[in-house]
Amino acid sequence: MIEIKKKNDESCCCKPAPKEDADRYAGCLLCGKPLVYWTDARRLRCSVCGRKFEANCACEDGHFVCDACHAAGAEAFFVPVLLASEEKDPLLLLEQVMALPRVHMHGPEHHAIVPCVLLTAYRNNGGELELEPALREAIRRAGQVPGGACGYWGVCGAAAGAGIYASIVLGSNPLHKEAWPIPMHLTSACLADIAAVGGPRCCKRTGRLSVIRAAAFTAECFGVEMPISTVRCTHIGRNRECIGTACPFFPTSREA
After folding, report:
1. Which of 26, 62, 164, 240 could connect to 105 by a Cys-Cys bridge, CB 3.0–4.6 Å?
2. 46 with 79, same domain?
3. What mean pLDDT do residues 139-168 have?
């Protein structure tokens, strides 16, 4: 195995004040109304922090919330949970984190959650890793993947998160000959699984698919076995774009 390198960084962002239950149907964090997406970027002012950004969506009433404000507070909640956890199953860890109240139905916080639960499970299953700096580095890197990348880049942030996980474990960088292609293999495998199920977006579904693929990849490439449970989605009522029985995590009539 390639020697693990330790990373350390930190990110912070402002705290939004969303309307209670506004996220129930994965709409605007401020009013709950549906989001409107455009193919062209427009200069918009964030309704939370007041800064201006190039963006491709706002709600029907014109509210726009930037990625930093959308994800604000989530890391502060899930990092302590992961640092204290002894759970070895990354899929169960993912479900636990996604159920936290600051984690929305959809949003760029999932780009960080995926590598963080994988790093935690890697450590908990015997992988050599200094967890806290690894989590901070994963959050920093994932913060560079914008919301909506799945639709606008053709690269789901959950799959990119799996690649971030692998690159941190390997200590990869752009000039690391041996490690350089390995995270790409994992990211591409995750993207293939995500594309095979189809759209539209669901950050819960793509996160689960990426974690499952990454667990198998970890056993094969890193020699660390991760148990994987069978899970069924508990977020169906929050997702107006749920694809129902086409999703591999949709409960059967017997389970519902």
Report:
1. 26
2. no
3. 94
Angle between helices 182-197 and 203-222 (to 10 degrees): 140
* Domain encompassing residue 44: 22-69
Residues 6+ apart with CB under 8 A from 223: 1
Tell me the chain's radius of gyration from C-alpha atoms.
Answer: 18
138: helix, strand or coil: helix
Residues 111 and 211 in one domain: yes
Q: Quick one: pLDDT at residue 72?
A: 66
> If you average pLDDT over every residue of the chain, what do you get?
85
pLDDT value of residue 69: 76
Of 169 and 102, the structure prediction assigns the larger pLDDT to 169
- Residue in this structure with the two tokens 């930190």, named with its chain if needed: 10
Q: Which residues contact 118 (CB under 8 A, 6 or more apart)?
A: 90, 161, 162, 165, 211, 214, 215, 218
pLDDT over threshold 50, residue 22: no
Task: Tell me the backbone φ, ψ of residue 123, rounded to 5 degrees.
Answer: -65, -45
Residues for the chain: how many in total?
256
27, 85: one domain: no
Tokens encoding 167: 């690159």
What's the rounded Cα separation, in Å, for the pair 182 and 1?
Answer: 12
pTM of the predicted model, to two decimals?
Answer: 0.78
98 and 178 part of one domain: yes
Q: Concatenated DSSP letters for 154-178?
A: S--HHHHHHHHHHHHHHT--TT-TT
